[in-house]
Amino acid sequence: MNGVGPDIGRVDVxxxxxxxxxxxxxxxxxxxxxxxxxxxLSDLETxxxxxxxxxxxxxxxxxxxxxxxxSRTEQGNAIAAVAAKLGLTAALSSTLGLMAQKRRLFALxxxxxRLEELLAEHKGEVTAEVTSAEPLTKEQSEKLSAxxxxxxxxxxxxxxxxxxxxxxxxxxxxxxxxxxxxIRSKLNALQNVMKEVG
Length: 198
Hints:
With 198 residues, this protein is α+β, with helices and mostly antiparallel strands. The protein has two domains: 15-121, Peroxidase, domain 1 (Orthogonal Bundle), CATH 1.10.520.20; 125-197, Glutaredoxin (3-Layer(aba) Sandwich), CATH 3.40.30. The chain has helices at 15-37, 41-57, 59-66, 72-86, 90-101, 108-122, 138-152, 183-197, and strands spanning 125-132, 155-162, 170-174, 177-180. The protein is globular and about 65 Å long.
């Protein structure tokens, strides 16, 4: 090992993400259970949406939760200020404080994602990840949502992103199922056929 330290076996590149998700899941379950017992799930949903938007919008916040150079105390103070400013529920605010104390704030994006999943499951809702070449209109979103709901048998919430390299069409992912109707994938398939013919 050339003095690099103990051999810990092969490390899967997805391991850090799965470790963060595992940590976040435990905190998320606790927050969800407490909120459910207190009849505060709709307040929790609002808080989760606010926190998600803040993470997307603020590079400073992303820096605070991920930087090893920021002390526990500074992280704790910063996240308490964010929680107060956003008006987060008590259960979520105290969990964020605990995560800061235990140096676990790096898992905050996964906590938000897991809470969104738990809230959606509770409402009998599934999330479809939709990638399109250009932004969907409100009418297109509603039609797609209705079509997916009919197919899946559950209420469907769309999480949309734009990827211009698709050229046209959509990539829709629900759980482990994926439908790719993008022009890019059709061109790739055509290219493969041409290679086989040539």
